[in-house]
């Protein structure tokens, strides 16, 4: 059984170089390995239990040890650097949709109070907080902020945009802004529209008193907020210290990045087996690890060329007739294209 809080080798290879070097202690017990402590933090993040309730049988150390490491790593900027590394890989894979970005917010209960909390207008004045999120057109989170439950969404539109880290992975300067910004009527303000236009961003913000026409394209931010709150530690704001909650938020966001990368690994293997490099008309040539591109973004002739090269290689090995490339048409669904790619390209990998 695969448990979600176990750190894989591939993910650990990206995290380990970012961790600060701990000075060797002359006396006292030997500190626990960082990987084991990170798994203890993930156990708390997934299950939502208190740190003092962390089972010692798991070998992840005590809850206080996990709390101290999370504090130190957040202070050292480990998770911010991890965001830049994973976002660069996603950008190199042409998986980030820069054509638009969506913003949204969600309220969570704050049981213990503390900074960035306030009386919630949607929860009978009980103490709560808000998670403000900006994501790309496909639901990849770009930045998350935390405010009190009584803060208006308008106050966080520009800070969210400024919180986007520089995203590398492509030729040229790192990118930090989308082409357009989609928001609901809660973010309606002419001042923000002017600021967005000055930055070269097209504002797509619904007007108050009118019908919200952006609901069909705002599914990404709502889905990402739901993914964040599937981590039980984030569904309720338990921490009195803001930096600890920000650490959990950053770690959960990194896990969402990692899920996106691992889901596209199959497509990378298939395309590399065919010796095929893909490109998108709207983003130019893909650089670096460029073969994470989903099949739905490939043109019919590109798929036919990839399948033709792979099928000729696999059929020469197995002495079987090559498949008919005319079966690959632009009208095929995403599932049909993916299944056909697997049938034609997997033998080439053997």
Automatic annotation (TrEMBL):
Name of the protein described by the UniProt record: Transposase
Positions with biased composition (Basic and acidic residues): 177-188
Domain (Insertion element IS402-like): residue spans on this chain: 7-83
Residues in Transposase IS4-like domain copies: 106-255
Chain segments carrying region Disordered: 108-129, 167-188
Any GO MF annotation of the entry: transposase activity
Superkingdom of origin organism: Bacteria
GO biological process: DNA transposition
């Amino acid at each position: 059984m695969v448990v979600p809080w176990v750190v894989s080798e591939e993910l650990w290879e990206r995290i380990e170089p970012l961790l600060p070097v701990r000075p060797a202690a002359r006396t006292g017990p030997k500190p626990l390995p960082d990987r084991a402590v990170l798994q203890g933090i993930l156990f708390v993040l997934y299950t939502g239990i208190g740190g003092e309730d962390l089972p010692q049988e798991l070998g992840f150390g005590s809850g206080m040890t996990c709390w101290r490491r999370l504090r130190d790593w957040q202070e050292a900027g480990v998770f911010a650097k991890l965001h830049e590394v994973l976002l660069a890989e996603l950008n190199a894979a042409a998986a980030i949709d820069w054509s638009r970005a969506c913003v949204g917010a969600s309220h969570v209960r704050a049981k213990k109070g503390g900074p960035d909390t306030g009386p919630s207008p949607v929860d009978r004045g009980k103490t709560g907080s808000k998670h403000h999120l900006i994501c790309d057109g496909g639901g990849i989170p770009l930045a998350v902020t935390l405010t009190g439950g009584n803060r208006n969404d308008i106050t966080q539109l520009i800070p969210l945009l400024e919180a986007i880290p520089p995203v590398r992975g492509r030729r040229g300067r790192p990118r930090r802004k989308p082409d357009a910004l989609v928001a609901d009527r809660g973010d309606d303000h002419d001042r923000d529209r002017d600021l967005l236009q000055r930055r070269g961003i097209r504002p797509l913000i619904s007007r108050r008193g009118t019908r919200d026409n952006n609901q069909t394209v705002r599914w990404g931010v709502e889905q990402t907020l739901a993914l964040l709150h599937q981590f039980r530690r984030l569904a309720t704001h338990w921490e009195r210290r803001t930096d600890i909650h920000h650490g959990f938020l950053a770690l959960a966001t990194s896990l969402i990045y990692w899920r996106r990368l691992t889901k596209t690994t199959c497509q990378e293997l298939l395309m590399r087996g065919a010796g095929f490099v893909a490109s998108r008309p709207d983003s130019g040539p893909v650089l670096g690890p460029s073969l994470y591109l989903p099949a739905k973004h490939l043109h019919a002739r590109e798929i036919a060329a990839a399948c033709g090269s792979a099928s000729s290689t696999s059929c020469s090995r197995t002495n079987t007739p090559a498949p008919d490339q005319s079966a690959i048409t632009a009208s095929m669904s995403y599932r049909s294209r993916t299944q056909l790619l697997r049938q034609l390209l997997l033998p080439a990998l053997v």
